[in-house]
Specification:
By secondary structure, the protein is an alpha+beta fold. The chain has eight helices and 14 strands. A hairpin with a 5-residue loop joins strand 9 (218-224) and strand 10. The longest helix is centred in the first third of the chain and has 25 residues, at 35-59.
C-alpha cells in the first residue's frame, strides 16, 4: 500500500500553474531565459519544499506510514506505549569445591562474558546442600539491549564477585530475550492490533497483542486452539530465534491476567517447533555467463528468501518461489531444485529454519 497523495508536489505541475497565472494576469507570454521565468522557477522550488513538508506531515497522521515520535502519539490514542529495552536471560551452571556445608550463593553476584564483556547477575539466591557440588540457575544481563543476546554455551565464565567455594561458572544455553527499544515497525503492528485487546473475549488478535507486549524482542506470535478452552501461544523472536524459558514466562504472565483472558481459557505458552530444511539447486546458465558471479547472486537471492520464511510462524517454503528467486538473476536459463523435494507446509505452531543454501552450475544452454 502506498501513502495517499494529500497535495501535488510535482515540480513541473507547480511551475506550469504559476506560469499560467502570471501570463493571465499580465497578458504576456513567458519564454525560457526571461527574468520572470527564472523568478517563477525559484518561487516554485520554495513551494515544492513547503508542499513536501505538508505531505510528510499529513502522512504522519496515518499509522501505516508514521514514524517516531509521531507514531508514539498515535499509539497513545489506543493506549499503546513503545516498549523499552529489555534484558537478556541465560542459564548458568555453577560448580563448587567439595567440603562445604549448606551453602547459599546470594542473588546479584555478577559474571561476565569472555569476549564481549557483557555482565550478568544472579536472579535469585541459590542454595546448595552439603552433598551438592553444582547447580544451574538463571542470570539476567545487567544492561538492557540486544547486545547481550547470542552468547553461546561456554562463552560466559568469568566470575566478577568471588564467593566461598564457588570455583567455576559457565552458561549452558545461548543468551536470549534482550531487546533494544521497540522499533517503529513492531510498534505499528501492535497499534493495529490494539483495538482487539479492548475486549477480553479471547480473540486471536487480542492474545497476539498482549503476547507481543511482553517483550520488545518478540517479532511474531502464533496462536492455536487445539481443544475447546485451550489457547496455545507460540512467540517467535527477532531473526527467527526460538524464545528462552524466561521469555515464555513473560508471555505467560502477560496473557494470563484475568483482565486479558476469558475465565474459561487455559493459556499455554510454548516455543514454536523448528521445521528445518536445506535449499539445494542446480542451475543451467546461458552460454557465456560467468558462473561464479551468477552462483553468488543466486545464493544471495535464496538466502534472502530463506530469511523471509523465518520472520513469522506458519510461513510455507514453496518450491515455485525458490525457482522464481533464482530465475530473477540474469543468465539463469533453468533451475532444478534438489532440496526441498516438495513445498514445505508450516503450521501456526512452527517456524521454517533453513540450515544451508547450496548452489551449483550443472550445464549451459543457448537461449
Amino acid at each position: 500500500m502506498e501513502a495517499p497523495e494529500f497535495i501535488d508536489i510535482d515540480p513541473e505541475t507547480i511551475i506550469r500553474e504559476i506560469k499560467s497565472d502570471y501570463e493571465q494576469m499580465t497578458g504576456s507570454t513567458l519564454y525560457p531565459g526571461q527574468v520572470e521565468q527564472l523568478l517563477i522557477n525559484a518561487l516554485a522550488y520554495r513551494e515544492v519544499l513547503l508542499r513536501t513538508q505538508i505531505q510528510n506531515a499529513a502522512t504522519q497522521n496515518l499509522v501505516a506510514f508514521s514514524s517516531a515520535p509521531f507514531l508514539d502519539f498515535l499509539g497513545d490514542l489506543v493506549g499503546v506505549k513503545r516498549l523499552p529495552p529489555s534484558k537478556a536471560f541465560v542459564q548458568v551452571k555453577m560448580k563448587c569445591t567439595p567440603g562445604h556445608g549448606v551453602l547459599t550463593i546470594p542473588k546479584g553476584i555478577r559474571i561476565q562474558a569472555n569476549n564481549t564483556g557483557e555482565v550478568f547477575a544472579l536472579m535469585e539466591d541459590v542454595t546448595l546442600q552439603a552433598d551438592e557440588d553444582e547447580k544451574t540457575a538463571s542470570f539476567v544481563s545487567v544492561n538492557n539491549g540486544a547486545q547481550a543476546n547470542g552468547l553461546n554455551p561456554g562463552e560466559i565464565s568469568i566470575i566478577l564477585d568471588p564467593q566461598p567455594y564457588l570455583f567455576s561458572v559457565t552458561n549452558i544455553n545461548t543468551s536470549t530475550g534482550g531487546s533494544n527499544e521497540e522499533s517503529d515497525e513492531a510498534l505499528r503492528e501492535r497499534i493495529t492490533l490494539a483495538p482487539q485487546s479492548f475486549s477480553n473475549a479471547g480473540s486471536r488478535g487480542a492474545y497476539a497483542f498482549f503476547a507481543r507486549s511482553a517483550n520488545a524482542a518478540i517479532m511474531d506470535v502464533g496462536i492455536t486452539s487445539p481443544l475447546p478452552g485451550q489457547v496455545n501461544i507460540y512467540p517467535l523472536m527477532k531473526d527467527g530465534e526460538l524464545p528462552s524459558q524466561a521469555v515464555l514466562d513473560q508471555v505467560k504472565i502477560a496473557c494470563s491476567d484475568e483482565k486479558v483472558r476469558p475465565l474459561t481459557d487455559t493459556v499455554i505458552v510454548l516455543p514454536p517447533t523448528a521445521k528445518s530444511y536445506q535449499i539445494d539447486v542446480d542451475l543451467t546458465l546461458i552460454t557465456g555467463a560467468l558462473s561464479s558471479e551468477v552462483i553468488a547472486m543466486v545464493h544471495d537471492k535464496l538466502i534472502n528468501y530463506a530469511s523471509s520464511r523465518k520472520m513469522k510462524t506458519g510461513l510455507d517454503v514453496v518450491i515455485e518461489k525458490i525457482i522464481g528467486e533464482a530465475m530473477k538473476v540474469d543468465s539463469v536459463y533453468e533451475v532444478k531444485v534438489n532440496s526441498p523435494l516438495s513445498t514445505i507446509l508450516v503450521g501456526e505452531d512452527q517456524v521454517a529454519l533453513c540450515s544451508g543454501v547450496n548452489v551449483k552450475v550443472t550445464g549451459y544452454s543457448d537461449e
